Structure formats: structure tokens, C-alpha cells
Amino acid sequence: MTQEKYTRQTITARTEWIPGKLFSITTTRDPAFQFVPGQFARLGLPENPQINAAPDLWRAYSMVTPPHANELAFYSIVVPDGLFSPRLRDLQIGDAIYIDKTAFGFMTPERFPQGGQLWMLATGTGLSAYLPMLDDPNTWQQFEKIILVHGVREANELTYQDDIARFARTHARHEGQFTYLPATSREKLPGAPQARITTLIETGELESLANATLDPAVARVMLCGNPAMVTDARKLLTDKGFAPGRRGIPGSLAVENYW
Ligand SMILES: Cc1cc2nc3c(=O)[nH]c(=O)nc-3n(C[C@H](O)[C@H](O)[C@H](O)COP(=O)(O)OP(=O)(O)OC[C@H]3O[C@@H](n4cnc5c(N)ncnc54)[C@H](O)[C@@H]3O)c2cc1C
Asked: Which key words are in the record (predicted)?
């Protein structure tokens, strides 16, 4: 028998955040599957289960659960004419899902030195990668200040707020260690800027809102989600002196593009 590169797991829970648009699934976990917060799994499904039950469609998904959890969870958009995400959305509790035995990805806090501020900038489902970091006490030990910026179009896409508040209550070492900054681009939300993340960086408003300076001497920045945001924000940050780590030298910038 050939040794498969993946394991068969089972859906144990589903959450519909916005019907037909945003959902989460929880799955069983192979005890041998190891990862660090910020990494992603490759999920597999058969394109046509009637013809072939073996998985032939594979997509990357960041773990939203921390490494110490017994199960895995993933947060997903539904791309209406996408091949994978509508199939993932249709899975019911008890259905099978396939997970590559290896976790991937380098946008992890361990790439950064001890101390300073961690800025987590996400658009949409890019939030996923930051949730296990926020649910990990090591992140709160590593950084003096953590700033989470979640950019979405409409306010109902600001998901996981209760969990984020709970992580801060559980792990924050001091008052003011954590700042959560939601930003909506197509809807006015009281107390939150109506602007894109890149505009907020450019105008300096992000620094005012966070009460912190985007200075590579003290700040480490992660960018995750929409590749246009990642490219534009990376340019703005490079101009400020931010750079990814190289040849064992820790950097001040780490990114993950979702497509
Ligand atoms: C490293 C990595 C981690 C990822 N983690 C996640 C995750 O945690 N959650 C998640 O929902 N997706 C994530 N993705 C994207 C995911 O792999 C799929 O692309 C997505 O679920 C859509 O699959 P699809 O086959 O339906 O459409 P695809 O054919 O893969 O994508 C079609 C188009 O949909 C758009 N699109 C794809 N993904 C997204 C998205 N997340 N948000 C908005 N628009 C999108 C893009 O325009 C893309 O060209 C990740 C991708 C990478 C590379």
C-alpha cells in the first residue's frame, strides 16, 4: 500500500457567519499534524465524489485554532464560481475532508526578535492566520504591544470579535497591550475609520489610531490577505525601512498572499 501524503479527517462543526459568503468549519485532527501559529494547511476534496472519492482539488487554508487544540478550524470565504470554496461550504458534520500531513508557511511570530510591537494587518479572511497567534500565550510574551487591524468591506464581515476579545482578556500581560482596529471600506461604522488599510498607513491615521509608530526599530509587521493590499502596503512599509528577514537575520516584515 502506498503511503498517502494526506490524512482523512471529519467535519465536526460548522459556523455560518454570513450565509453564502463567510463560514468556518471545525475538523478532527491527526495527532501527528504539527504546526506553528500563522501556518496553513492544504485541504483536499474530490471534485466529483460520485466518480472518484480521492481528493483531487487542493487549496491552502490558514489554521484558526492554536497548536494546542485537539481539533483544527478554518475560516473561509465562498467564491461563488470557485472550484473549492462552494464545495467546502456544502460539507456537513460527519463528512470527510482531506488534510496534507505537512503544514506550510513562514508568516510566523518566531521569525521576529523578542520585544517591540507586533502589527497584524489583514483584509477579509486574512484574519485567519492571526487568530492562533492571539490564542497563544507565547505571542503575548514575545511582544510588548499587539495591534490587530482588520479591513473589510462591510461591518458584518468583522467576524471572530468575541474570540479576539477573549484572547486579550486571557493572555494580555498589561493594560493596553492589545489594540483592535476594525476598518470598513464600504460602510460607516461608529468609532472606526472608513478607509482601506493602505490609505490608513499612507495618511498616518493608522499610527494615530494605534497610538504607536510604524518604525522598523520597534515594530514588526505582518500583512495577510488580498494581494493588492499586501503589495501596496509592502511598498509603503519598505519606504519606511521595513524589510523581510534574510539569511538568518530577523526582519521586520512578513507577508502571506491569499491568491
Ligand atoms: C497561503 C494561503 C492561505 C489561505 N488561507 C485562506 C483562508 O484561511 N481562508 C480563505 O477563505 N481562503 C484562504 N486562502 C485562499 C484559498 O486557498 C482559496 O483560494 C479560496 O478558498 C477560494 O478557492 P476557490 O477554488 O473557490 O476559488 P479560487 O479559484 O482558488 O479563487 C478564485 C478567486 O477568488 C478570489 N479569492 C480567493 N480566495 C479569496 C479569499 N480568501 N478572499 C477573497 N477573495 C478570494 C480571488 O480573486 C481568486 O482569484 C488561502 C490561500 C493561500 C495561498
From this structure: Nucleotide-binding
CATH class of 6-100: mainly beta
Written as one letter, the residue type at 80 is: P
Atom of ligand 1 nearest to the CA of 83: 25
Characterize 33-45 residue by residue with b for buried, 16 or more Cβ atoms within 10 angstroms of its Cβ, and e for exposed: bebbbbbbbbbbb
CATH architecture group of domain 109-257 = 3-Layer(aba) Sandwich (3.40)
Distance 199 CA to ligand 1 centre (A): 24
Q: Is the CB of 98 under 6 A from ligand 1?
A: no
pLDDT 10s digits, 107-122? 999 999 999 999 999 9
Determine whether the shortest distance from the Cβ of 26 to ligand 1 is under 6 A: no
Domain boundaries, the chain: 6-100, 109-257
Say which residue the cell 503511503 belongs to: 3
Length of the chain equals 259
- For the chain, how many helices (H) and strands (E)? 7, 11
Fold equal for 6-100 and 109-257: no
The CA 258 to ligand 1 mean position distance, Å, reads 5
61 lines ligand 1 (CB under 6 A): yes
**Radius of gyration of the chain from its Cα atoms, rounded to whole angstroms:** 18
pLDDT value at residue 2: 59
Indicate if ligand 1 lies below 6 Å from the C-beta of 23. no
**Index of the ligand 1 atom closest to the CA of residue 256:** 1
Ligand 1 proximity of 40 Cβ (cutoff 6 Å): yes
Q: Is 217 in contact with 251 (CB distance < 8 Å)?
A: no
228 lines ligand 1 (CB under 6 A): no
Element (H, E) at 70: none
pLDDT in tens, 65-77: 999 999 999 999 9
